[in-house]
Amino acid sequence: MAFDIYGTVVDPAGIADALTPVFGPQARTATQLWREKQLEFTFRRGLMRRYVDFDICTRQALRLVSAQLGAPLDASAEQRLLDCYLRLPAFADVKPTLETLKASGVRLLALTNGTASSVRSLLGYAGLGDYFEQILSVDEVQTFKPDPAVYELLKRAAAPDADHVWLVSANAFDVIGAKACGVKAAWLRRDAARVFDTWEFSPDIVLQTLEELPLELQRRRLA
């Protein structure tokens, strides 16, 4: 069982308070724009085959936000905010779910756009590091989700159970990428107002909260 990290396990919106001293009343806007540009830059780089790691994409996205919202950052202020990105809060439903899955003998992997070192810091800060058997970073294949190479990386790590591996993600593009490569996927609908992309691929499970996952898997005799 593999989990996406950003937006699924940890909440990128949790950085908003740290942005308030710099962006003031625009902090929420800055938070959303930072996340949007961070992902957009990964998509672009994946298509262009101009890979740099996720930490660099995150820094470049922050610089764009700073320029667009007219809130200049000196080097120390920029680094402080980037350091805060290593301390994003975990969603409340994550730890109890991981505990339940781990207790039932499910192998838990992280499949992430993030660098292994940054994700290790994130999970350690959130008290979740001991639940994951392995962190699978796109650094290993030098591209980003939803490139098929990322999901092939997961299949290789899940061997000999690759035919039964699942991905859990709150990002629809990630679910679609997994399904396109033959990986079963659960979409975590963290925003109740959001609808799934109208593509030819759809999730095997739709979760309103992560705590629904163990029961759903049990119903499918996978846990």
> Level of helix content?
40-55%
* Terminus-to-terminus distance: 10 Å
What is the correct CATH architecture of the largest domain?
A: 3-Layer(aba) Sandwich
Structural class: alpha/beta
**Major beta-sheet overview:** 6 strands, parallel
CATH class of the largest domain: Alpha Beta
Task: State the shape.
Answer: globular
Please give the radius of gyration in angstroms.
Answer: 17 Å
**How many individual β-strands?**
6
In N-to-C order, the SSE pattern is EHHHHHEHEHEHEEH
> Please, how many helices?
9
Briefly note the CATH topology name of the largest domain. Rossmann fold
Rounded mean pLDDT is 96
Count of spatially separate domains: 2
Brief write-up:
With 223 residues, this protein is α/β, with parallel strands linked by helices.
Structure, explained:
There is one protein chain. With 223 residues, the chain is α/β, with parallel strands linked by helices. The chain folds into two domains: 2-9 and 88-219, HAD superfamily/HAD-like (Rossmann fold); 12-84, Putative phosphatase, domain 2 (DNA polymerase, domain 1, Orthogonal Bundle), CATH 1.10.150. It is built from nine helices and six strands, in the order E-H-H-H-H-H-E-H-E-H-E-H-E-E-H. Helix 8 links the parallel strand 4 and strand 5. The mean pLDDT is 96.
